[in-house]
């Protein structure tokens, strides 16, 4: 029958299109253990909640080992502004943070002798929290984000002078011939910082398995921007590390590379204080890990 022949010659219906793969969801905000309960309890609830949400979102970009430290610093910076603002004039909403308010904050911080970098460190997270509130519907004026940043030079330059760097280098090379575990330890972490330019948090996070001493290199796991990279060691840094490892008990590959004592890894404040002390020994003031990086 013609109608049956026609039916047999028709093409079968095309299968439904396969939906594209669903991209993975953004990772959940990193938890802020105990910070949410203890941070700035005297601030209004609407301020605390918004600041904690902002820092939760920021924490997605930070390495897990750095999340609590960075979160606490951001919250402390936000608390400085809000404590000042509410003591000066209580407000009821984020939209009341105007350009004039921020300018008054900058002017008073400068009058109190604060460095430009200190003021900027408070403004940046505050701007981030304000931008987040704007995206959530708060009528934050754009003029707030066009405020001119404070200018000026901080007390210490960002790098050591050639003479300062050479003097500190000579001083630390003398540590290579001192046969004590402490001098070997200080020489090792110092030359890694000074000769590779890694950041202090990257030094603290180094594990024994990140060191390839034979190849003269270190693996930096999730550095800035959560990117991995490899840095190469100078001959002096290799020598210092070799002597350090010979003087300190062997550790597992996932254990910290640097220890302050036999059972206590290096800490941020200890390294910063010890580095200032080493600088003072040769008359170089304000030595910090970040200045070594810039040098």
Report on this structure:
This protein has 295 residues and is mainly α. The chain has 12 helices and 3 strands, in the order αααααααααβββααα. The chain has helices at 2-9, 35-38, 45-58, 67-88, 99-111, 116-135, 162-174, 181-196, 200-205, 235-247, 268-281, 289-294, and strands at 211-212, 217-220, 229-232. It has a 3-stranded antiparallel β-sheet, with no helix packed on it. Strand 2 and strand 3 form a beta hairpin. The model is unreliable at 15-28 (pLDDT under 50).
Question: What percent of residues are in strands?
Answer: under 5%
Tell me the distance between the termini.
91 Å
Question: What are the segments in which pLDDT stays under 50 over at least 5 consecutive residues?
Answer: 15-28
* Count of helical stretches: 12
What's the arrangement of strands in the largest beta sheet?
Answer: 1-2-3
**Main beta sheet: strand number and arrangement?**
3 strands, antiparallel
| Mean pLDDT, all residues | 86
Number of strands: 3
Alpha carbon gyration radius: 27 Å
Question: Which structural category fits the helices and strands?
Answer: mainly alpha
Helical residues, percent? 40-55%
Q: Give the SSE string.
A: HHHHHHHHHEEEHHH
The shape, in one word, is elongated
